[in-house]
Design a protein that fits this description.
- By secondary structure, the protein is mainly alpha-helical.
- It has two domains: 531 residues, Up-down Bundle (Amino acid/polyamine transporter I); 36 residues, no CATH class.
- The chain is 67% helix and 3% strand.
- It is built from 25 helices and five strands.
- The strands form two sheets. The chain has a three-stranded antiparallel β-sheet, with no helix packed on it. Strands 1-2 form a two-stranded antiparallel ribbon.
- β4 and β5 form a beta hairpin.
- α4 packs parallel to α12 and α11 crosses α14.
- The protein is globular and about 70 Å long.
- This is Transporter.
- GO terms for molecular function: antiporter activity; metal ion binding; serotonin binding; serotonin:sodium:chloride symporter activity.
- One of its GO terms (cellular component) is plasma membrane.
- It holds the Pfam family SNF.
């Protein structure tokens, strides 16, 4: 009981703003900066905002609200919460933890790249602004708007591209996934520094991480505002904005646009990773999580929209410099958009060193927020599930978890590590987490029951969720998630990075990694059924009536019967 008391005492935020900033920092990540602007431009510009908003209103926000309410009411992480909802679905919690580990294996490597850039920025001349470095090739072409004797051709490579591929990643030393090569010691040290920051930010719980996010969640907005003002003053910036927002209504007739909108809003808000459950479990019981869901999801969507202006003003500037169309410059939605195109634009600006420092510092801050959240989801889940074993050993458990994440990320630090990052990004998390969330919604709405869940919300907040939310949870959200899953299966991604085309066997490997997490769900169902009907002995336990005080129990000798299985889990009661 004392350990449980310590755990419950620790499960509170110091301030309400700590919670809001943590949720915003988790939801607003690197994908908001590089993926949303490109997806918006590619799928009809301003017209894309219509399917994006519809998917947010009818799919993303209801799921966001549901997870906050579940975590706050049951005060449990993603594993132990299922004993209150539907125990047979407990495997969902274990699957979520494995997915979170896979994310930690590759996501933090991107921050290690950004840290390498940040350390390289403390020079009078940025190393990716010249073609005279040892890693440069004969195709290196530094085109400046004032240098009219230099022309840009299809075979030209910018110094920023060669710095990224040949110096930071050193991907030219690896022929592909079948031969990754050695580990880059520079990136290994950068990643070690990143995980050191992560450890000392989360080792004491939300009381420490809640203070760190005051910096990591607010600083990116300051940098985005500075970069937006600077980008708007660059020559050709208007070209980028036109390409970003020019509506192409015909594209709304394409199924791909709606698929991209659904996937973008889902991965942007981030339900299904156990983070929202964990963060909400530290809230006071009567906290207004309904308002929190609306505020934080709105901030996330507006940040994505703002990031589009920041990125595309610079892309318009790059198109003006190269005398190309914006679509020729904005041809990559991945990290290359940040580490090549944007880095090259910064190198050609006045005060390039200053803008490079704040930009890559912003990238690191955006990534740290999401890492804090992802690992906190795992930590909360394990501490709730095994409090007697882990509550007094939280620091050591967090240390072991961080070490596992670092060791798991070593393959992404090799010369071919960028190929591994892409493989994890495409297969290890996407289809698996969507399937897990689909099962989560079905378990809550159809098995636990929408009426019972809404009654829980009424007990917490004092009002019953409206008809719109109930319909979304019962029907629209499952259809929303099923639509994304079918789209993934019907239109499997064609994975390609730089000039490397992923061979067919990597698809099999990728789906095996994805299934390795999802397999926890049916495996636990089988275990639970066998344990309940075959391996348990009926136990009749007499417990005092829950509504009575100890004095009343002594006076009335009232009790009720509970039938539990071999694991001590409640099956029925009278």
């Amino acid at each position: 009981p004392y350990l449980l008391y310590l755990h419950e005492k620790d499960k509170t935020w110091s301030k309400k703003m700590d919670f809001l900033l943590s949720v915003i920092g988790y939801a607003v990540d690197l994908g908001n900066v590089w993926r949303f602007p490109y997806i918006c431009y590619q799928n009809g510009g301003g017209a894309f905002l219509l399917p994006y908003l519809l998917m947010a209103v009818f799919g993303g926000v209801p799921l966001f609200y549901m997870e906050l309410a579940l975590g706050q009411f049951h005060r449990s992480g993603c594993i132990s919460i299922w004993k209150h909802i539907c125990p047979i679905f407990k495997g969902i919690g274990f699957a979520i933890c494995i997915i979170a580990l896979y994310v930690a294996f590759y996501y933090n490597t991107i921050m290690a790249w950004a840290l390498y850039y940040l350390l390289s920025s403390f020079r009078p001349t940025l190393p990716w602004s010249t073609c005279t470095n040892p890693w440069n090739t004969a195709n290196c072409n530094r085109y400046m708007s004032s240098d009219h004797n230099v022309s840009w051709s299809n075979t030209s490579t910018s110094p920023a591209e060669e710095f990224y591929t040949r110096q930071v990643l050193q991907v030219h030393l690896s022929p592909g996934l079948h031969e990754l090569g050695s580990i880059s010691w520079q990136l290994a040290l950068c990643l070690l520094f990143i995980f050191t920051i992560v450890y000392f930010s989360i080792w004491k719980g939300v009381k420490t991480s809640g203070k760190v996010v005051w910096v990591t969640a607010t600083f990116p907005y300051l940098v985005l505002l500075i970069l937006l003002i600077r980008g708007a003053t660059l020559p050709g910036a208007w070209r980028g904005v036109v390409f970003y927002l020019k509506p192409d209504w015909e594209k709304l007739l394409s199924t791909t646009v709606w698929i991209d909108a659904a996937a973008q809003i889902f991965f942007s808000l981030g339900p299904g990773f156990g983070v929202l459950l964990a963060f909400a479990s530290y809230n006071p019981f009567h906290n207004n999580c309904y308002k929190d869901a609306l505020v934080t999801s709105s901030v996330n969507c507006l940040t994505s929209f703002l990031s589009g202006f920041v990125i595309f003003t610079v892309l318009g500037y790059m198109a003006e410099m190269r005398q190309q169309n914006v679509d020729a410059v904005a041809k990559d939605a991945g990290p290359s958009l940040l580490f090549i195109i944007y880095a090259e634009a910064i190198a050609n600006m006045p005060a390039a060193t200053f803008f490079a420092i704040i930009f890559f510092l912003m990238i690191i801050m955006l990534g740290l927020d999401s890492t804090f959240a992802g690992l906190e989801g795992v930590i909360t889940a394990m501490l709730d599930e095994f409090p007697h074993l882990l509550v007094k050993r939280r620091e050591w458990f967090v240390f072991g978890l961080v070490c596992v994440c670092y060791l798991g990320a070593l393959s992404t630090l090799t010369y071919g590590g960028a190929y591994v990052v892409k493989l994890f990004e495409e297969y290890a998390t996407g289809p698996a987490v969507i399937t897990v969330v689909l099962l989560e919604v079905i378990a809550v709405s159809w098995f636990y029951g929408t009426n019972r869940f809404c009654n829980d919300v009424q007990v917490m907040l004092g009002f019953y969720p409206g008809c719109f939310w109930r319909v979304c949870w019962v029907a629209i959200c499952p259809c929303f998630l099923l639509f994304i899953i079918i789209s993934f299966l019907a239109f499997p991604p064609e994975v390609r990075l730089f000039e490397y085309q992923y061979p067919p066997w990597t698809t099999v490997l990728g789906y095996c990694i994805g299934v390795s997490s999802f397999i926890c769900v049916p495996a636990y169902m089988v275990y639970y059924l066998l344990n309940t009907f075959c391996a348990c002995r009926p136990v009749l336990t007499l417990l005092p009536e829950r509504t009575m005080t100890p004095t009343q129990i002594d006076n009335h000798k009232s009790c009720f019967c509970v039938h539990v299985n071999g694991d001590g889990e409640r099956v029925s009661e009278t």
